[in-house]
Amino acid sequence: MDVVSPELNSLLPDEIMDTEAIIMDDDPPSESPAASGQSQPSDDSPVPMDTDVPAVPEIVSLCSDAPPTQLTQAGTTPTGSTLCSTTSATQLLLTSSTVSSSSLTLRPATASTLTSTTPKTTSSLSRVSLTSGGLQKLSAPFTLSANHQIILNKVASSPGADITRSQGTTTTTTTPGGQQFMVTAIGKSGQPIVLQLPHTGSKSASVQGLGEAKANPQHFKVVTVSSASQVSTLQAQQLKTVQIAQKTQVSSAGPIKFVFTKAVNNKGLTAQTSVSNVITGRVLSTSSPVTPPRTITLSETLGSSSSNKIAISPLKSPSKLTVVSVASQVPNSPHKSVSLPLNMAHLGHQILLQQSTSTSPAKTMKPVQTVTVGGVGAPQFKTIFPLSTPSNVQQIQVPGSRFHYVRLVTATTGSSTGHAGSPITNSSMTAKPMVVNTTQVRMSVPIVPAQTMKQVVPKPLTSSGQVLTTQTQQRLIMPATSLPQIQPNLTNLPPGTVLAPGSGNMGYAVLPAQYVTQLQQSAYVTLASSSGFSTPTGIQTQARLPLNGLSTSGAAFRPRKPCNCTKSQCLKLYCDCFANGEFCQSCNCTNCFNNLEHETDRAKAIKACLDRNPEAFKPKIGKGKEGESDRRHSKGCNCKRSGCLKNYCECYEAKIMCSSTCKCVGCKNFEESPERKTLMHLADAAEVRVQQQTAAKTKLSSQISDLLTRTTPAITSGGGRMPYTFVTKEVAEVTCECLLEQAEQAELNQQPQATAERMILEEFGRCLMRIISSAGKTDCPSINC
DNA sequence: GAGTTTGAAACT
DNA sequence: CAGTTTCAAACTC
After folding, report:
1. Name one GO cellular component term (predicted).
2. Does residue A594 reach within 7 angstroms of strand C, measured from its CB?
3. Using an 8 Å Cβ cutoff, are A375 and A319 in contact?
4. Does strand B come within 7 Å of the CB of A654?
5. Which of A112, A60, A115 has its CA nearest to residue A86?
6. CA A590, C1' C5: Å apart?
7. I need a labelling partner for A229 at 20 to 30 A (CA). Which of A110, A201, A720, A785 fits?
């Protein structure tokens, strides 16, 4: 599988999210309701809403042809990848199940119920039939506007029961041409969604074309507006377009291009924003001004069942991104699509992607892939994991959080009760929202009902059912054990926490991003685990942690110091690895239990820590409202002897000032402290020196490398030889004879030693010059004294 | 590298 | 919640 290299990955612009997980739905329209029903969480499922999402006017559009004012890169991107882009506080869930008519499911993240409230600027020209089988009912059908838009105006809902009901709300719209739109609202409330149809003549014609143009690229445009009154405010310069060109392997379904046009939150953008082309998993960055509408284009070739590449770029924070391959799916997988919506708050973004192939007689859907993009604060490490895995993998990321509660893993094997497909009536399995609260990011993680979830059975990999290929040839399979005791503390989601407890076969292991990173660094990680924390004996874990120990790009992002724990078994917060939610790896610890081999003990330890302090795994250094300058220790330090000017002090170590929350004695870690300033100056000077040394080393290394590069072919080929290559043994001997001759001359003339040395050196210089001058000649140098 | 210091975490 | 102990990192020599 091709993956985006870390180098290219680093070039990913903020605004780009790319994934190939989007696959056109080729299911017949009649089957769509069923499919959407699968992805529809039950009414009992509380809505994982985080209402802190800022109400940023946003426009997301899928259109066939980018407006002239848009910087469209459609067509320039080869197939093989899909790119999505969202702006802050936008959560877009794309679900596409493959049908012959290439229907597309869009799930804008919103918590509100979709209604037919039409903005003033649009006029209802036609109604789109609504098929909501198995879905949350909509208050009204979509409205096709005059400008080829399907307006899905969502009603702002209270954070109460409405949100709960609206969670996962999915609307399926069938156009006259048989095209289906399935829109699920799982995100911000009060945000209408406009499905903008291509501007191809009459509206009906364009709608019809959507269903008919199977052999031609099809374009959809979906526009979401933050409020019902915002449609008229859509301005060209506010549009950000992401165009997704997609080809299906189904002959009847031609390439379909999606153009996501989205309003840009000017406040959250810098003067320059980046737009990337994703070319077969490779991302090339370009830049464009913010004010003009931005079009991000990517193409996806669904015909290839071997590799689906995902590239995602967050909108805002300079987040790092991991692009991993999506394992191909098995056509005959009997599982239907299920969406597992996740919500991100605070500028977080999320895209849930589902896909299936049309070749499967039954609806086959990849497990939900969740991509969370964005966030605030420090650079984030974004990870996208393959979906096709024997264990149902969910990924949750918390931008800005010390812990990236990354993965939900479902157990599909093991000795736990129940089997996939068997109904689960245990109420404990009912979907519940998990709100992750950190000082920087709040995240809601809804767990769809187990009955639904278990329909998302990962498809085996084409190559191996036990491994997943990730960015750097690591293979990862996540454990799926349950830990019921921890669920009450889901707001803290400790590393390794296992979600979705109960007797069901679906467990959700929440692991920190660091863990994922660690596993990514592993050359080979194979793990099979059964669910049931209560039955530890049932846990079958096989983990082969890194064989080579070599770090990858992930390690480069955040180097980790190995711990040296001896007595804590690395299962207490004394251990930095454990405290950071990491498994010990390449540490110097003894009797370490902070690994997969001791998953049970580790889970217990996590629970114990959370019992003592529910915020034990939260970042200690919170982010202030006005940026890093306001970072402060959540608890404050208690230093007594260090003056808070040594790394003993957690504040000083974090390079922040002590605050009123500190209980330190004799604190010198305040703004005006002369001692602190002195230390800072020294530290800065030391840092400068280090940087200079590093730069010098780098330069020297580069020069050496360059020299070798230039000289090696010369030596081997014989052409363009460097001067020193002429210093053969004979030349050296002749040179030495010349030097000796000078020495003898000086001795014969009874010259002083200094004069003799000078004569020798001068002769040596002449020899060198002759050697150098001879280098430019084809003949061998002739050195004569 | 060994020993000491330090303060957070854990414990009572 | 306060005092004590444990622990591992930071620091010193």
Report:
1. nucleus
2. no
3. yes
4. no
5. A60
6. 21
7. A201
Query: How distant is C1' of C2 from CA of A534, in Å?
Result: 36
In this structure, is the CB of residue A648 within 7 Å of any atom belonging to strand B?
A: yes
What ranges do the domains of chain A cover? 22-306+326-339, 383-612, 621-667, 672-718, 721-775
pLDDT band at residue A570 using 50, 70 and 90 as cut-offs: very high
- Residue A122, CB-side half-sphere exposure with 13 Å CA sphere: 35
For every residue of A617-676, DSSP letters joined together read TS-SEEEETTEEEEEEESS----SSSTT-STTSHHHHTT----TT---SS---STT-HHH
Q: How far is the CA of A667 from the C1' of B9 (A)?
A: 21
More confident residue, A369 or A728: A728
Q: Looking at residue A724, what is its pLDDT?
A: 64
| B8: residue with closest CA to C1' | A574
User: Residues A312-364: pLDDT tens digits?
Assistant: 333 333 333 333 333 334 334 334 333 333 333 333 333 333 333 333 333 33
Q: At A751, which amino acid appears? A: Q
The CA-atom distances, in angstroms, between A512 and each of A38, A484, A492, A721 are 28, 18, 11, 55
- Model pLDDT for residues A670-715, shown as the tens digit of each residue: 888 888 888 888 877 777 777 777 788 787 777 777 766 665 554 4
Determine the distance between A122 (CA) and C11 (C1') in angstroms. Answer: 70
| DSSP category for residue A266 | G
